[in-house]
Amino acid sequence: MKIGIIGTGALGGTIAKKLVAAGHKVKATNASPVSELKERAAQLGVAAASIKDVVRDVEIIIVSIPTNAIPNLPRDLFAGVPGDVIVIDTTNYYPYRDGPIENGFIDKLESIWVSRELRRPVVKAFNNLLSYTLENRAKAKGAPGRIAIAISGDDEKAKFIVSELIDELGFDPVDVGPLSESWRHQPGMPSYCTELSAPELEQALADHENIREIAPQLRDLTTDKLMARTTPPSHQEMLDAIRSLFPINPKQDDGQ
Ligand SMILES: NC(=O)c1ccc[n+]([C@@H]2O[C@H](COP(=O)([O-])OP(=O)(O)OC[C@H]3O[C@@H](n4cnc5c(N)ncnc54)[C@H](OP(=O)(O)O)[C@@H]3O)[C@@H](O)[C@H]2O)c1
Hints:
Distance between the termini: 31 Å
CATH topology of the domain at 66-243: Rossmann fold
Bound molecules: NADP nicotinamide-adenine-dinucleotide phosphate
CATH class of the domain at 66-243: Alpha Beta
Oligomer: single chain
Low-confidence stretches: none
Number of helices: 10
Shape: globular
């Protein structure tokens, strides 16, 4: 497929590399000057594009930038982009990084706000796993313990296509439902970055209205815990810190 990616950081860059490896035609942009963008694009094996060009002549656009950078995108970014071009939102809101956000931001329904800001329907995907997981823990379809990625959105056809892409990249897609249900895979929820298999993720996604209310506090608790360390946490330490928040979701280290 022809895919444009906005953001070439930890997550956008990893998605880019994996899509290229899977044979897709990828172009990407970031916030850096052109010379640095070209260098980063060459590292990733993608074409460097301007913000205006990255959304042209593609079938999927992946937005992978900090939440507080969303309002900095051109207001008319999607004007002239055909309605059947799928927009994937990978963003997660972190107050320590994004600060307070104006314009009616609701941290319990982040992607609805993103969709309004972009003036386009979005499919929320790739937000509930760490870039390390995406890069290192792909498994063949049907392999035991294959990690699942949550996906939500209002367009069934778009979700089907994104699900196929997720499968191709080595993960099981789990459809959470419409975008209004996307709070179920936001930071602070049991489904978030806990490396669950599809059945485990389905369990983690179900019936968590009570946790929804405290998810922002749980998100911040984990961040504070990890940031208080004197050395950067390993991937496993991050995973353990997040998993330890949820006794109802007691996935233990599976030795990977
Ligand atoms: N990292 C993860 O494991 C992970 C996992 C799931 C979801 N997410 C979410 O995905 C999003 C990206 O995360 P990340 O970790 O990849 O962040 P990151 O490493 O900080 O990279 C952010 C990227 O966004 C680009 N950017 C910022 N403002 C821009 C603008 N106005 N126009 C175009 N590009 C812009 C930056 O450009 P420059 O490179 O030029 O600065 C950079 O390439 C965040 O919302 C994050 O919460 C991250």
